[in-house]
Fold:
Amino acid sequence: MYVMPAMESLSDAQLHVLILAGDEDALAAWEERVRPDILRMLATAKTNPHDAEEIWNETFHATWRRLWQSPPLLPLGEALRAYAFRVASNIRAKRWQQNSRNPATVPLLDENDETVAKAIQTIDSQRVLALRRCLESAPERVRLVADLLMQRISRHEMAQALHIASTSVGQTIARAKARLAECIERGTT
Amino acid sequence: MTLARLRAEIANEEALPEIKLDRSIESQIDALLLTLAEETLPSLTTIEALTADVTSVELPAGYEVRSAERRRAVITDLRLHSPRLGPLLRTARGAKSPREIADTLGVATAVWESIEADRVPAAVLNLDPSSIGRATDTLGLARSTVALALRSSLAAVASSGYAFGYRPQQATEEVEPLTVEVPDQSSRIRGWLLAFMRADN
Structure:
């Protein structure tokens, strides 16, 4: 005989199992846990309520579509929150790029930049692996800056996330990138 | 290290001399980070940095109603696209005999065969979750896939009216079998699945 605990007392991983099994209440409980972080992230970028709901809607569907497309590949537990967060930041960055070139909303990591686009074409897997290793051994502050960049955030968001002035963002990023570049060169030469 | 400590370290760096990074090196790092971003999830510290000091966006009126519709759509999608339990188990069993699997579970071969045939998927709920877990692990199936397929099969069988067992027509019934009230099994299914996944740890 199995006793069903209340939804609130279940871990993320347990909720996911129930969602996998088609449990709508568990999906509502998961949404309540994940949505606030994503809405706060969207608030930093001054996203209007209508756009925020659209982005959350796309994130929600994209996350769970991945589930039925390849259930074993979808991370369970807390990692799924991170997965949904990344999906939301990617969707938001794409919208920024489609809707305007407002400097306030250009991601600091911009694949539409001509020199970056060219560099992407010449990337080899060894260097990606080298970067991964360098990030693992880098000081936490360098990892944090790199991880924030990977969320496709703007200069304003970076300043707010790190509690620094907007004018200091460029130098903070440059230091982190210089350290990574040096490490990659050491590792691949 | 806490986020506050990391922020303090970064702020301290502002006193250091300025550095000028070559544009081509910067583009290389940007390109590598963009590539890595495709396969990397943000850390909890990163999420905290982006969300800790911010008030959430207010969603437009009527959000809750639309949200419930979205959830229903996701669950429907899940059901439509999930594999059925029987075929999943049958394919995964490969060259092994049904008896071999049934023996590891301590059940009659006929029980396993009825599950594989997707006739009585609810029979799984009568079996020990950890034993089923071990059996499906042996077959190389992820437990999340098994959970997905179980619900898909239960839903399909429930819609055919034979959700939790088969009751043949009685001699006293002239045309149709008597209607049988099927109890709500959702709590039982939830409990079984939680035990099934717990046994994974």
